[in-house]
Design brief:
557 residues, Glycosyltransferase, 2 domains, 26 helices, globular
């Protein structure tokens, strides 16, 4: 058996040592007293009533006031402050949407309409896209006079990102806005520097598809240059972000210490990935608010376990060994691990250790039913991981659809979303887990999208390793096309998935807004993790830029 194992590994795998993290030791040095948190929290509580009064407590209920309120909600979202005013926002938008026809009847300002469209759809109110027909001329094309309104064109470009499979006018708007924003983004036409930065940010990742913490940090820098800014709102945004940063530093210290104190991490071979910072960042992409600090820590630990399990199976496990590991996970009983050896045994013990932690936390919350759901998702993850290992090593070439269906589970889409719902505390109900486990179209679309984006980003690395289970590779084989053609086709498929996702989100009107938000956040995390490079596996690329932006660049009050 040992000869088979060595042949299996040597002929199939070609892994290289990954660079160490530059961040870990810095976070271990972090030290802040409770009083540092208290000072900022008190300042937030002083500023919040002033902002609330300015935005939500106006006595007038006329159309102009309602539009100003909607615009202010957009600012709250952009500045990372919306979570402070959840009830006020939901109530305001509910009442505003009930009179949407009257509200937009005579509105001809592109920026205003685009902002309203974005805000309503963010909160699952299906404002119809035909509202943009009013900006077309008699020739059926968007009016060229609109190009003078740079902020309006940019906001229309952002509105396009909410398009569904039936919003055909937004496809036209996409071409129109790209044609007029691209010369500004490349410097062929001039605009104010802070608007230019906003355009370039949108071109990299549109706001709707970006992470709220990253958006907020960038938008604070943008908003302080706006002539019509609300200085109280700006100050609240800055103080709030500093408060968030304290939580983030503390969480990173906690996770780093937890990982380094684990028994098995002291003797890891070089090819196992140490990913404490990356797993925390991935957890942040699911929720950035301070009240979910424990949820981020729980999620980051889950991602560390999944990464360890993935490496153990892909790098060090023969198929029989991986089968034995999966069998033990299916039984979920430590007494059955006597047949496991080496890293397979370590992986199983690591899983059991983490879920014991979860059990203690969930028992203290009176939510042990969540543990059963998490175990169910983890077993599915292990099962599909084994299936893809078999495909890769046997040279099996499934159809793209077959691979995306299995790959969505193997790449931990469903386990990630389930873990984020667990981290919501009492807001995550049994029905929310049951809905996810039923694999609605929304979740399946995200699973396929994850597999697709990951495989496009990692294609060269996968091929260098000899790891053939890659969507791009399968598409090239299935259709007999070049890599460049396959990338173009798969990116079009990915664009269609974005539309399907938006469409399905608009159906989630019976759930508390926080649950659709977890699916929103997961979808946007994919763009953050896979646009430009694979953030999770390339710590010298965009990850370094994101960490510096959020945790290093100063915010001056």
């Amino acid at each position: 058996m040992e000869e088979v194992k060595n042949l299996d590994q040597e002929s199939f795998l070609n892994f290289t040592k990954l660079p160490a993290s530059q961040w870990g030791d810095q976070f271990l040095k972090f030290s802040k007293a409770d009083s540092d948190f208290d000072v900022l929290e008190r300042e937030i509580e002083v500023l919040k009533p002033k902002v609330r009064e300015n935005i939500f407590m106006l006595s007038s209920k006329d159309k102009d006031t309602t539009k100003r309120t909607i615009h202010s909600i957009y600012l709250l979202e952009s500045l990372g402050l919306a979570y402070h005013f959840d009830k006020e926002i939901e109530d305001s938008l509910k009442h505003a949407f009930e009179k949407i026809e009257d509200l937009i009847a005579d509105e001809d300002d592109l920026y205003t309409i685009s902002i309203m469209f974005r805000v309503f759809r963010t909160y699952c109110h299906n404002m119809l896209s035909d509202v943009f027909n009013r900006f077309k001329g008699k020739d059926g094309k968007f009016k060229e006079t609109l190009i003078q309104d740079v902020k309006g064109i940019l906001s229309l470009y952002e509105a396009v990102q909410f398009g569904t499979t039936t919003d055909h006018i937004l496809d036209e708007a996409s071409s129109f806005t790209l044609n007029h924003l691209e010369p500004l983004a490349t410097g062929r036409k001039s605009c104010s520097p802070h608007i230019l930065k906003l355009i370039r940010n949108a071109f990299h990742i549109p706001q709707h598809r970006n992470n709220q913490a990253l958006v907020a940090r960038e938008y604070i820098s943008f908003y302080e240059h706006e002539e019509d800014r609300d200085d109280t709102l700006l100050k609240l945004a800055k103080v709030n972000y500093k408060f968030l940063q304290l939580h983030y530093f503390q969480e990173l210290k906690t996770i780093t210490m937890w990982w380094r104190n684990l028994e098995h991490t002291a003797n890891l071979p070089p090819n196992f990935r140490e990913r404490t910072v990356e797993t925390w960042f991935s957890a942040l992409l699911m929720y950035f608010e301070p009240q979910f600090s424990l949820g981020r820590i729980m999620s980051a630990k889950m991602y560390l376990v999944i990464t360890f399990l993935d490496d153990a199976c892909d790098i060090y496990g023969s198929i029989p060994e991986v089968e034995s590991l999966v069998d033990c996970l299916e039984r979920w009983d430590p007494d059955y691990m006597e047949n496991l050896q080496g890293h397979m045994k370590t992986a199983f013990k690591f899983v059991m250790y983490l879920f014991k932690e979860y059990e203690e936390i969930l028992r203290s919350q009176g939510r042990l039913f969540v543990l059963e759901k998490m175990i169910e998702e983890f077993k599915i993850l292990a099962r599909t991981n084994l299936e893809l290992v078999k495909w890769a090593r046997a040279g099996h070439v499934p159809s793209l659809d077959e691979f995306l269906e299995s790959g969505g589970a193997e790449i931990a889409t469903y386990a990630t979303i389930a873990c984020s719902i667990m981290g919501l505390g009492e807001m995550g109900s049994k029905e929310d887990f049951d809905w996810l486990i039923s694999r609605p179209k929304l979740a399946r679309t995200l699973g396929a999208k994850t597999r697709l984006m990951d495989d496009i980003a990692d294609f060269e690395e996968d091929m260098e390793k000899g790891y053939t289970a890659n969507a791009l590779n399968y598409y090239m084989n299935e259709h007999g096309v070049t890599k460049e053609q396959a990338v173009r086709e798969l990116e079009m498929i990915n664009g269609d998935m974005n539309k399907i996702f938006n469409e399905e989100c608009l159906k989630m009107t019976t759930m508390p807004h926080r649950i659709p938000m977890q699916y929103f956040n997961y979808a946007s995390s994919l763009d953050v993790l896979y646009t430009a490079d694979d953030v999770y596996n390339n710590r010298e690329g965009k990850l370094k830029e994101y960490m510096s932006l959020m945790l290093v660049d100063p915010i001056l009050l």
